[in-house]
Write a structure and sequence with these properties.
With 1010 residues, the protein is an alpha+beta fold. It has 20 helices and 50 strands. Strands 28, 29, 33, 36, 37, 38 and 39 form a 7-stranded mixed β-sheet that branches. A 6-stranded antiparallel β-sheet has the order 1-16-17-15-14-19, with helices on one face. The radius of gyration is 36 Å and the shape is globular. The two termini are 69 Å apart.
Length: 1010
């Protein structure tokens, strides 16, 4: 065997076409987190990181109250979900049997550890309803009406502990197959190893530590932040039936969640539903839903190449090789299979002479060199190798980037790289050359990948490449995906000459028409290159968690980018992919499916970083864990800020003739961006002499418009049954019932920058007069006035948050009915902020299943119809709040003038020497003046190199000299005169030409402190 070449090196990180304008989503979000706040959060994350080079769980060398320490300790618990069943009666405990290895006991143990961890970290609120279900910790003002949430799971999948997987687990000492190795977590060479480190115990704990960083940073928040840690997402017990659940609920929920964590939180315990949330169980920047998929193959017959030199005899693909990484092969066994990051092409070079073989090798070398794939760095696996044994030539490509199938646009595809090299090296006339040219043009045009893997070069109309609202790729193409074994997979059959490359296509199109148009273009593009493409159909992305135009997506996407842009060096890998990274539909994030239009997947895998889950030797880089935690903390703080002037807490209230049982955030389409600024609607005629503090308008649909995830058949039937959640507009209950949404509407009033401390304190204490709430209905102002003899405290409230002393929150209780507007009616009613209601039949023979919750309090509400019965709760033109005097009896003002930036240099008359006398040595002197004016902090006067005086083609032998009487100033100056002296020396032997000698010189007045 002779070695022709062995090359490698860094690949081209560029992922977009040259000179092309980047796509911009139409729905954007104005971020509130400042650079200084981001610095503060990131500093707290670093302080909590607990970075260590090597450690073993329990060895005492690390702090258990750090990110790395918590991940190590958490991975020691056997929280693998091995199934079992749940009981059929409240509180539905999980079975605890030998068959499921005592599921109940194991989960109780880990949750008890989490409770202790959260309390030791100093979280002010730590809640556990049942010992075997979930735990949540909360930060923020407990009186804040709105809550945002992160819900993830602490358990690990059984996929990583099958018999085949266990044989490949390594203990901290590198031994294979050691019993219990998957729960003997350790840190080695910058990676944390252990079951659940990537899915999803590690990311869940990172979310908890992100909230801890927010707690320590003490930055202003308008909403509470809740971190919910479930423990049954992967292979957990089957949830009790919808009918069993309904036995203790007054309104059967719209779904019987397939994930026990969701069921336990929402159905069993009827916990508060967030206005916005995420799960850390998929990928950044934000996952908006599960995509539909089809798996055709791109095929071409190469039989015409038979008997020709350089014909293909074998083609295989697998996971990239990486010198010094014996566990890399384990990544192929994850639940989401790999894209080809290794490709091996074998060519028959019988009949090719030495010169032809050399030309092939030289062409491959030149193409690889141009792409930066060579030379191979010492101690690394070469990216490109071409070897020859007899008449068999092998071209092997290893990209060094193992990437998964749902996100091909972030990867580097070895089959594509190989086809590109073959396209450059093969002569025309081979079918293989046509195939290589075709793949190169479709997936490697201009030598870049990225958006080629969303179909950019397949003739798809630009409007259908991405969803215009958020940038989600409508189609992704994972060429030669499906790699799920360490043994390379063949995609060529030599006996028939058939090249057949699997193409895993995922779709997020929302209409069949769009999908059909796009897939027709794809089929035509492959056919134009000579390929036969299997049926694409018209796949629809039916698993949206949130609508594409949801502002939560724009918020999280914007926050992700801002985190990277703030510290690009600390986020080098994701920064390199920034321009092709957008919201996406893919696998994972399944907990979001039952929090419709309120939850996405935000993390944990970062584009550019490898993902290891559902596999032996599950691991995460320490750097990736810290990056992830910073992204989560930034995103949570952004979610915890009001996106408009107001927020609301929805309540239950027993109002005569009205049904408040559906005033539940899970049944209402409320998320960030719901309460919009309406200050422009309130004019001077409405205000009079009063000052406007805040105005809002809103529209809140009931039980619809919340994404398009499909419930199970049983849940669908239950939801549409009498008393169910889904009520068509012709449903008898809907037609006969007037629904009401009682809410505490809260306005945020921020202190002006110029307001003195004493004045702000006086304002907060109402020392400057009253504050009033009003409705604007058309042009009519309707004051919200408390009836005589009743306490205003029942209708109104205020607070100053401990996290933001410069914001006053003013609240009013409203009861908006889905009915015609007939004026405003003040009503006193028994009310509670816990929204659940228990089935009366169940309560008749059972104690309250929610002890300590559901406290009833009499509140006052301003009740009014929203105008139309249409299954929506809408505000009038505006709900607004005013003050009689906003900033006391005085207002600060300033008077002054502005000095424009000035650097002024004025030169006097041109200097002129006396006539030069030939043959006589002498020094000639001339002067002029320079007048300097500067408003800068410093200034310097300088002159260009004067060179030599010239007279046509003749120049004086000795250079011209220039000197200043003063050339620097350390402060501003006006009209300062400087003497400029010119000196020209003439030697006795200097040859002088008749005529005038001259030289143009340039004077510069400059500053370093403008």
């Amino acid at each position: 065997m002779s070695l022709l070449l062995s090359t490698g090196g860094a690949g081209d990180a560029s992922a977009s076409g040259i000179g092309e304008e980047q796509f911009q989503p139409s729905v954007t979000y104005d971020l509130s987190v400042t650079d200084a706040e981001r610095d503060a959060i990131h500093a707290e994350v670093e302080a909590l990181a607990g970075r260590i080079s090597d450690a073993r769980a329990g060895d005492g060398t690390y702090d258990p109250l750090t990110l790395v320490g918590a991940m190590l300790d958490g991975a020691t618990y056997d929280s693998i979900s091995r199934g079992g069943t749940a009981a059929t009666a409240y509180p539905f405990p999980v079975s605890n049997t030998a068959a499921n290895q005592n599921e109940y006991d194991r989960k109780v143990a880990k949750l008890a550890w989490v409770v202790k961890l959260a309390k030791d970290l100093g979280f002010p609120v730590v809640v556990q309803r049942q010992p075997d279900k979930y735990v949540y910790a909360e930060i923020g003002d407990p009186d804040a009406p709105e809550m945002v949430m992160a819900l993830s799971h602490l358990d690990s999948p059984t996929a990583s502990v099958t018999a085949a997987q266990l044989a490949r687990w390594r203990d901290p000492f590198g031994n294979l197959g050691t019993p219990g190795a998957y729960h003997s977590s350790y840190v080695k060479d910058g990676w944390v190893y252990g079951a659940g480190l990537q899915d999803d115990s590690g990311p869940t704990l990172a979310t908890l530590l992100a909230a801890k960083a927010m707690l320590e940073a003490g930055l202003p928040m308008d909403r509470r932040v809740r971190i919910v840690m479930g423990i049954y997402e992967d292979g957990g017990p089957g949830t009790p039936t919808a009918a069993n659940t309904a036995t203790f609920q007054s309104i059967p929920y719209n779904a019987n969640p397939s994930f026990y964590d969701n069921w336990a939180y929402k159905n069993l315990n009827r916990e508060e539903t967030p206005v916005a949330a995420y799960t850390s169980d998929s990928r950044f920047p934000v996952i908006v839903g599960n995509s539909g998929s089809v798996t055709p193959s791109a095929s071409m017959s190469l039989s015409a190449d038979a008997g020709k030199a350089f014909r293909l005899t074998d083609a295989r693909a697998g996971v990239t090789l990486r010198e010094g990484d014996p566990t890399l092969k384990d990544i192929a066994y994850g639940s989401t299979t790999q894209i080809a990051s290794r490709a091996i092409f074998t060519l028959d070079v019988t009949g090719a002479d030495a010169a032809a073989r050399d030309r092939f090798a030289a062409a491959v070398t030149a193409a690889a060199t141009a792409k930066g794939w060579l030379p191979a760095a010492p101690g690394t696996t070469p990216k490109v190798q071409t070897t020859i044994a007899g008449d068999a030539l092998t071209l092997e490509v290893n990209t060094d980037v193992a990437m998964e199938m749902p996100t091909p646009q972030y990867g580097k595809n070895a089959v594509v790289w190989g086809m590109f090299l073959l396209s450059k090296a093969l002569d025309p006339g081979l079918q293989l050359k046509q195939a290589a040219d075709g793949i190169t043009d479709l997936f490697f045009r201009d030598g870049v990948e990225g958006e080629a893997y969303i179909g950019k070069y397949m003739g798809i109309p630009a409007s259908l490449l991405r969803n215009p609202s958020n940038g989600t790729p409508n189609l992704t193409f994972a060429l030669m995906g499906g790699i799920n074994s360490e043994t390379p997979t063949s995609f060529y059959t030599d006996a028939t000459g058939s090249l057949s490359i699997p193409l895993f296509v995922r779709s997020m199109h929302v209409t069949a028409a769009d999908s059909a148009q796009a897939t027709a273009a794809v089929t035509a593009a492959f056919q134009a290159k000579g390929f036969t493409l299997g049926a694409l159909g018209s796949p629809i992305g039916a698993g949206l968690y949130v609508t594409h135009d949801n502002p939560l997506t724009a918020l999280q996407f914007g926050s992700y980018r801002a985190t990277i842009d703030h510290e690009p060096a600390a986020f080098a890998d994701p920064s390199a992919l920034r321009d092709v990274t957008y919201p996406q539909g893919t696998t994972g994030g399944t907990l979001a499916s039952n929090f419709r239009n309120k939850m996405t997947a935000f993390g944990a895998v970062i584009p550019g970083n490898e993902r290891w889950w559902h596999t032996a030797n599950e691991r995460m880089k320490v750097d990736s864990a810290v990056q992830m935690t910073k992204m989560m903390a930034d995103g949570m703080l952004e979610m915890a800020r009001y996106s408009g002037p107001a927020g609301a807490q929805f309540m239950w209230a027993g109002m005569p003739g009205l049904n408040a049982d559906r005033a539940d955030l899970d049944l209402l389409d409320v998320t960030i961006g719901t309460f919009k600024d309406a200050s422009a609607a309130v004019g001077k005629s409405q205000l009079g002499s009063r000052a406007l503090l805040g105005a809002t308008a809103f529209n809140i649909p009931m039980w619809n418009g919340r994404g398009n995830s499909a419930p199970t058949a049983a849940a669908f039937a239950l939801g549409h049954a009498a008393g169910g959640v889904y009520l068509p507009l012709n449903d008898p209950e809907y037609l006969s019932t007037t629904y009401v949404a009682p809410m505490r509407l809260e306005f945020k009033v921020e202190r002006p920058e110029y307001m003195r401390d004493a004045d702000w304190a006086t304002f907060v204490a109402r020392g400057y007069g009253d504050v009033t709430f009003n409705l604007l209905v058309g042009d009519k102002v309707v004051p919200l006035t408390v009836p005589a003899g009743q306490s205003a405290d029942k209708y109104f409230s205020s607070r100053v948050s401990a996290t933001n002393p410069d914001a006053l929150y003013l609240s009013v209780n409203l009861a908006v009915t889905d009915a015609p507007y007939e004026g405003v009616k003040p009503v006193l009613a028994d009310s509670k902020t816990d929204l659940y209601t228990v089935n009366p039949t169940y309560l008749a023979s059972n104690p309250d299943p929610f002890p300590g919750r559901g406290a009833v309090k009499q509140r006052g509400f301003f009740q009014f119809g929203d105008g139309t019965k249409n299954a929506e709760f809408s505000s009038p033109d505006a709900v607004y709040v005013t003050a009689s005097n906003w900033i006391a009896d005085e207002e600060q003002t300033t008077v002054g003038g502005t000095v424009p930036a000035t650097l002024s240099l004025t030169l006097g008359a041109p200097a002129s020497f006396a006539p030069f006398v030939p043959g006589v040595a002498d020094d000639y002197v001339a002067t002029t003046t320079a007048r300097v004016t500067s408003t800068a902090g410093d200034a310097t006067l300088s002159v260009s190199d004067p060179g030599h005086l010239t007279n046509g083609a003749f120049s004086l032998p000795q250079p011209l000299q220039v000197a200043f009487s003063k050339s620097t100033w350390t402060g501003p100056v006006s009209n300062d005169d400087v003497t400029v002296t010119f000196k020209q020396s003439i030697g006795a032997n200097d040859a002088l030409r008749t005529g005038t000698y001259s030289k143009t010189v340039t004077f510069t007045l400059s500053t370093t402190n403008p």
